[in-house]
Specification:
The protein is an alpha/beta fold. The protein contains four helices and five strands. Helix 1 runs parallel beside helix 2.
Length: 139
């Protein structure tokens, strides 16, 4: 039985660059292949552009299951290895409750109530040190 109608996100998830941040907006559920492609796209784009943040807007996601929770945690871990921070924005209360009930802690992720708040959070955070680059000292 094909469940394509209940899982509308297939193929490619657009990744937009807004200054030093990559913005990903998820709508609906992710298929395995789409999630894998998103992880690869984000890693390649972070490496190529040197952005310092990834903002994932999940306000269009009705349900976060253990699969999507794992994908978000993996994106955060990969981003951190590439010296970028990850913020998830727009989490619905029901989604937060489900994550707690599933025991998913989403390590490495910060959260924000809205995309705007997520952008502010990323702007406030000091960038992670990039391999091979000198550390900047604050006065």
């Amino acid at each position: 039985m094909n469940d394509a109608h209940s899982r509308p996100v297939t193929g490619h998830v657009p990744v937009l660059r807004l200054g030093d941040v990559l913005l990903v907006t998820l709508q609906g559920d992710l298929h395995d292949s789409t999630a894998q492609q998103l992880q690869q796209d984000l890693s390649e784009t972070i490496s190529r552009t040197g952005v310092r943040g990834v903002l994932i807007d999940i306000s269009g996601v009705e349900i976060v299951d253990s699969f999507l929770g794992r994908v978000l945690a993996e994106i955060a871990a990969q981003s951190k290895l590439l010296a970028a921070r990850t913020v998830v924005a727009g989490m619905r209360p029901a989604v937060a409750i489900t994550l707690v009930e599933l025991g998913l802690t989403l390590p490495g992720l910060s959260t924000a109530l809205s995309t705007e708040a997520g952008m502010e959070l990323l702007a406030q955070q000091a960038p992670l040190a990039r391999p091979g680059s000198p550390r900047q000292e604050s006065p």
